[in-house]
Amino acid sequence: AASTGAPLVLMHMQGEPGHMQQAPQYEDCLGQVTAELQTQALRALEAGVDPAQILLDPGIGFGKTHAHNLELLQGLPALGRLGYPILLGVSRKSLLATLLVGRSGQDPQDWPPESRDVATLALTAWTHDKGVSVHRVHDVRYARQVLDVLAGIAFEKRTLGSTEASDKTT
User: Fold this and answer.
1) Tens digit of pLDDT for each residue in 84-111?
2) Which residues, including other chains, have CB under 8 Å from residue 89's CB and lie 6 or more apart?
């Protein structure tokens, strides 16, 4: 990445892919993930990677329980304070099935991955508002629409706010 200028995604994962979900444990998930990503970013900088190339991914679902994932989602603003863009991949994840089941008593198996696109869009919108700037999704077209609507609302709010301010001064 340092020699090519390519973007570098630094993702957190506890354990190895073959067994990372067997018994993930953290004393302070958000604190540990943030510290480890900060360490990875410092290593990248020391290796000559330009800070503008670095993106951080907390690794939702990679060596984390449902509670850990929720802690990371709630803590996205803290992760953003490290000063790098956040990339998040929550599209069709089992976390969504668990959230969809909620208190209904349904089986998460009632929500196979391909049925989680609307839930993905909801979480994409919510996490975008929490500072995520790059979203890994399966249905790019609809995710783009969601993000365009959010950007349009923000633009309209700024435009209306400045118009209302100038109306009050005239």
Assistant:
1) 999 999 999 999 999 999 867 788 888 9
2) 57, 60, 135, 136
Q: Which tokens hold the place of 135?
A: 């979203």
- Counting as low any pLDDT under 50, the low residues of the chain are none
Question: Angle at Cα 34 formed by Cα 33 and Cα 40, nearest 5°?
Answer: 90
- Amino acid sitting at position 50: D
Q: HEC states along the chain?
A: CCCCCCCEEEECCCCCCCCCCCCCCCCCHHHHHHHHHHHHHHHHHHCCCCHHHEEEECCCCCCCCHHHHHHHHHCHHHHHCCCCCEEEECCCCHHHHHHHHCCCCCCHHHCCHHHCHHHHHHHHHHHHHCCEEEEECCCHHHHHHHHHHHHHHHHHHHHHHHHHHHHHHC
Residues assigned a catalytic role: 93, 136
d(CA 124, CA 48): 32
Read off the DSSP letter of residue 119: H
Is the Cβ–Cβ distance between 49 and 6 less than 8 Å? Answer: no
